[in-house]
Fold this sequence. Notes:
Structural class of chain B: alpha/beta
Oligomer: heterodimer
Number of helices of chain A: 5
Largest sheet of chain A: 7 strands, mixed
Number of strands of chain B: 14
CATH superfamily of the largest domain in chain A: Nucleotide-binding domain of ferredoxin-NADP reductase (FNR) module
Radius of gyration of chain A: 17 Å
Strand content of chain A: 25-35%
Distance between the termini of chain B: 32 Å
Number of strands of chain A: 15
Amino acid sequence: MKYDIRKLRLLSNAEIADGIFDMRLALSGDEPPVQCGQFAHVYVPGKSLRRPISVCDARGGVLRLVYQIKGEGTRIMSEMLPGCLVDVLLPLGNGFSVGRGKKYALIGGGIGVPPMLYTAAQCDSPLVITGFRNKELVILQDDFADAGAEVVLATDDGSAGQKGFVTDVLRARIAEVDEVCACGPTPMLRAIAQVCAEFGKPCQISLEERMACGIGACLVCAVKVRKNGEEIMQHVCRNGPVFNAEEVVFHG
Amino acid sequence: MADLSVKVAGVSFANPLIAASGTFGFGREYGEFYPLSKLGGISCKGITLQRRDGNPPPRIAETPSGILNAVGLQNPGVDVFINDDLPWLKQQNTVVIANIAGNTVEDYCAMAEKLSETDVDMIELNISCPNVKSGGVQFGTSCESVGQITREVRAHCKKPLIVKLSPNVTDIASIAQAAEANGADAVSLINTLTGMRIDINTRRPIIRNNTGGLSGAAVFPVAVRMVWQVSNAVKIPVIGMGGISSWEDAVEMMIAGATALQIGTVLFSDPYAPIKIAEGVSRFLDDNGIASVTELTGTVKPW
């Protein structure tokens, strides 16, 4: 069987920035290997839907899920105490395809930053560009440095790092980059996809959509993609969350 | 060990737990969790005559003890189902129910004809989908239209025919009688209740379709009431569904009048729910010295 429910021991669940938590779970070792950009589907007691959270890290036998309180489900997650067992479906989805020997720009915006950490750990000296609204929301800067990345910090209001958007940094540095991976709000991903198209750089983006089953059965987390000239519906959980940016038909 | 097998319209199920249409695709994904033979049956994702891409996202919103969805019948079309999915499904040693939806009565008849030439076990007539612009629930809300579509599909259908009923009606029992009188072999109920959620900051409905279908534990008491009313009004078997989340719910729904059950929304929090429910029902029967699950059906003692 490809899928199973895992009950993982909660090691810590600390608030690392305003409303952002770093959940660390002990992997049992018998899970399939976790790829960067994949997600865990977390059971929240009392809720009808699991919460899909991108894997922030899975090195050293510890699964890190860095998440933001967005509603009741993530609030309940933030109240889970060390020692308890957390019910997760893991690993789900298709992650980033990265390898050694290329120069990657890994770009995260806001709560889209965490999955770039495990991704950075799979690359040689990547350029990591992180963007946040303000200094209160900045996370994981030291972790990226420890993973061997050059990390650039940008904030919308200039309260930390340089003032501006991640795309400003990308444009300035794109000549040295072979490929781009990104995760964050849709307008940011759309802008990054445009820059990459302009400069002819391959670009992978991790998308988010309201999700239910997490495995491609219920078809709720739809995303429109263009394949062989035809627009078709695919699903974030099963076909993604990482897609080739050139194929994504942005909506709204 | 109690006997969990049930029979609906001449079709034998190993147990009364059937995966509900729309929550289980064509089975392949959940087949990566457990052998599908552990289920009594699968009601497949609703299929239409031609491929449909469905509604734009978001297609789902969480609600207190439930969800709203508006997928809009995304599916690859009946021919792809018959050629690519049905042969695989038929190897899984479980009852396969094709759920069909259409824009016109002719669509339904054409699909019933095509499926009658396959080895699908049963056909479920979906005249209760609230999330498509034409067809779907428009056929399911009056006795006349339910009677007419059941009669016409019946004439083109060689398989046992289940009519899936909408709860968005004033008198579901008379609708069920209209289905029965026009040739339905069974009825299944309830489909989802139409609902809506709004983001108070953007003032936009959370679901792109504005409205969606409510399912999950929140609708269970409504479903029990309707299954009870319908089972008192018809002689054909009733397949009960709507928010069943535990083995206790399953027992309750059968006592209300259901011969078999469909399980849907609970799968999203616990993919193993149908198996756990079947095990719980089995224990309940053993603990109470009941030899067969069929002995539960319709045994409610109303005041």
